[in-house]
Amino acid sequence: MIVTLYVPGKQPMSFTSTSHFGDVTGGRIVPRLHKVAEQLGCRPSLVDVIAIDHGYAMLAVFDHDGQLNELAMKEFVRLTRATIDPEDEADQLHGPVLTLTLED
Predict the structure, then answer these.
(1) Quick one: which of 32, 74, 90, 93 is 20 to 30 A from 84 by CA?
(2) What is the value of pTM for the model shown?
(3) How many domains does the chain have?
C-alpha cells in the first residue's frame, strides 16, 4: 500500500506501508482511522472519507477551514475520474489530505 500525505504548500510525501494504515479486503482498502488521524493531526472522529473505491481511499479532516489543497484536488480527480469545479467551494479540499493506494 502506498500512503501519500498532501499538505497545502508542500510537496506530497509518499511512503510504503504494509498494513499500518489499513487492511485490504476484496481489493478495497479499509482505513485504520486512528492511524490516519495521527497523520492528519486530528481525532479519529474527525477523519472524513472523501472517496473510497477499489484500490484507493482518500481521507481528510472533516470541515477543515485551512489552506486550499490544490495538489490533493488534482489527485482526487485522477483517482476518481470525477470532474470538479475548483472555484466551487463545495468541490474544494482544504488542509491535509491522506491517500491510501494499492501498489500496481
Answers:
(1) 32
(2) 0.92
(3) 1
